[in-house]
Amino acid sequence: MGEAKTGTGASADGLVPAGSPMPEAGLETEVAKLLPFLEPGARADLQAKAVRHVLALTGSGPGRTLLAGQAALLRALVDLAAAPAPAPAPAPARDAAHALVNLAAEPGLHEPLLEAEPALLARLLGRALDPEWPWAEEAAAVLANLSREPAPCAALMAALATEEPGESGLERLVRALCTPDYNARAPLHYLGPVLSNLSQRPAARTFLLDPERCVVQRLLPLTQFADSSVRRGGVVGTLRNCCFEHRHHEWLLGPQVDILPFLLLPLAGPEDFSEEEMERLPVDLQYLPPDKQREPDADIRKMLIEAIMLLTATAPGRQQVRNQGAYLILRELHSWEPEPDVQVTCEKLIQVLIGDEPEPGMENLLEVQVPEDVERQLQQLDQQEQHTREQPEELAPEPQAEGATPT
Questions:
Q1: Burial class for 167, CB neighbours closer than 10 Å (0-12, 13-18, 19+)
Q2: Does the model's pTM come out above 0.70?
């Protein structure tokens, strides 16, 4: 969620208009004076003006830094954003939630926020998963911003573990993400990035990849969720992180999950393949309509390619990806792709698919140990390639895949 911005301020009742210039020391004093207006029981109109003033401050770096040193004010802001309905009035609650989104967008402010209110993650998690809470999307956005950092992400996992007896917090989060109109008053798109951040942790991936829970299967349709690139990107990021677990590749690529068509379909365009080529593709990728559009977000396209690349880490995975005609989709994507870094990522995957198999003992690409000096050299070469690259290279023809094509 982008930073909420407002130019509205209050000019009466002792509140300074949000845009008024003021020396930093004076501003600190003025901000401290806002605290009584943010407390429960304050007059509703003054409370609304005070919160709008704080929201305006969160729209700039200096303003956020200033607020970071006001622990009592931050606690009051959290209380307003997460107070039980029907209090406070809707406008202060909404603006307080937007202010927290802006504050959490700056990693350097995570520690002051969590120190001011140690229960922040648990409180916002409860609000984000409350199907009646009107500002659940803002609560999810704050969690998405905070959980980008390792320590808050670990703390959020701990909060999920104790969130509610009977149903695990992660299960409830996935249910909220995958259930249309779970909250009729909030879209909850930002639960996608929350889950993506959590999936960087082994415990979360263990939950997501549990065959008995069918979590991955519930997430797969959201790779085509047209209403929000935020939700779509969060789900694709989650799936990519799950693909790091090579022990689960056989299950992911097998009939129980069949993940590959869901990763390839967003990368496919309206190309008209020959009958022979069409038969090599999974059924869901055959005879796509002439108005078929590729994923419009370059970052999501890159994550989809990276997920497929991870699935090719083992020899059986590489063979299965080849056999399902992935090269055909990637070949056309490479010709179409306007973003150089995504095109480079696509090329690397194509080279894995058409290249020779690694030497014995090096078949699992995720387990190959690369010396640090070699890794640095490769990273430097990769950066040079992306900066100097002007025209795409011609791709080598695809070798004939072995084995029958799954349908």
A1: exposed
A2: yes
3-state SS string over the chain? CCCCCCCCCCCCCCCCCCCCCCCHHHHHHHHHHCHHHHCCCCCHHHHHHHHHHHHHHCCCHHHHHHHHCCHHHHHHHHHHHHCCCCCCCHHHHHHHHHHHHHHHCCHHHHHHHHHHCCCHHHHHHHHHCCCCCCCHHHHHHHHHHHCCCHHHHHHHHHHHHCCCCCCCHHHHHHHHHHCCCCCCCCCCCCHHHHHHHHCCCHHHHHHHCCCCCCHHHHHHHHHHCCCCHHHHHHHHHHHHHHCCCHHHHHHHHCCCCCHHHHHHHHHCCCCCCCHHHHHHCCHHHCCCCCCCCCCCCHHHHHHHHHHHHHHCCCHHHHHHHHHCCHHHHHHHHHHHCCCHHHHHHHHHHHHHHHCCCCCCCCCCCCCCCCCHHHHHHHHHHHHHHHHHCCCCCCCCCCCCCCCCCCC
Instruction: Give the pLDDT of residue 164.
Output: 63
Radius of gyration of the chain, Cα coordinates, nearest whole angstrom: 25
Average pLDDT value over all residues in the chain = 83
Tell me: the pLDDT tens digits for 333-346? 999 999 999 999 99
Contact (Cβ atoms closer than 8 angstroms) between residue 110 and residue 68: no
Give the whole-angstrom CA distance, residue 284 versus residue 262: 9
Please tell me the distance from the alpha carbon of residue 113 to that of residue 187, in angstroms, as a whole number: 25
Pull the structure tokens for residue 171.
């299960």
- pLDDT over threshold 50, residue 392: no
Structure tokens at 277: 């080529």
Contact 112, 71 (CB under 8 A): yes
